[in-house]
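User: If you would, consider this record:
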Amino acid sequence: MNKIVEKTDLSENVVKMVLEAPAIARKRKAGQFVVLITDEKGERIPLTIVDSDPEKGTVTIIFQVVGKTTAAMSKMKVGDAFSAVQGPLGNPTDIKKIGQVVCIGGGVGVGVVYPLAAALKQAGNQVISIIGARTKELLILEEEMKKVSDRLIVATDDGSYGFHGFVSTVLQNLIDEGEKIEEVFAIGPVPMMKVIANLTRPYGIKTVVSLNPIMVDATGMCGACRVSVGGQTKLTCVDGPEFDGHQVDFDLLTSRLRMYCEQEGVANEKHRCGWNGN
């Protein structure tokens, strides 16, 4: 059992939790994730490890309420416990001194890009971070990102805070201004990552994305999280979650993410109405 020791609502439908998980906290590296199970009959939910404290034996996760299980998780309180937290899973980010890098986070993806920016900064890189959301109210981790960045640019779709526009436009402006960018790390909604990858491709700027396909066992056995990268089938749980954005088939990824939208909607509505299956 893994107890919740802290819980914070970051924005509408976005929750941060700190969980007891000593073994994971000791081993976790930037880019890796965990699988959470609420109870013995619960769905397996993969979430990136945002932060960890080996001394306290805790890991931090951030999730968005999008379906039945995440809705149930959002109602859990400090002191409640998950049936299991498995990890760390996936390949860690290849952290090394590169030069000047740009870390881009969109929406809840800011929680995923934060540990990468922190690790890249610690490795001696110049880190420009771009974070965005639809509105100011939906923006998360601004202060945390500021601490691990040499320069932070905030963008909102509606112009309610920071730059009025998309994170991709901010990146294009940096390129147009002549900023020397060695590598881009882009994490967020699939359409955003696709736009960023298409933007950097003509300039030959290496672009790393973190993918979030449907995942079941997270061990490579089920094949549910398969994606196409460079024309080859890869399993996100064991080959990723990070891949070369210029090689990802984003259209196929989008279609697979939509496969169970109807069933997810039905399950979430039943949960909201208190239906227990009896």
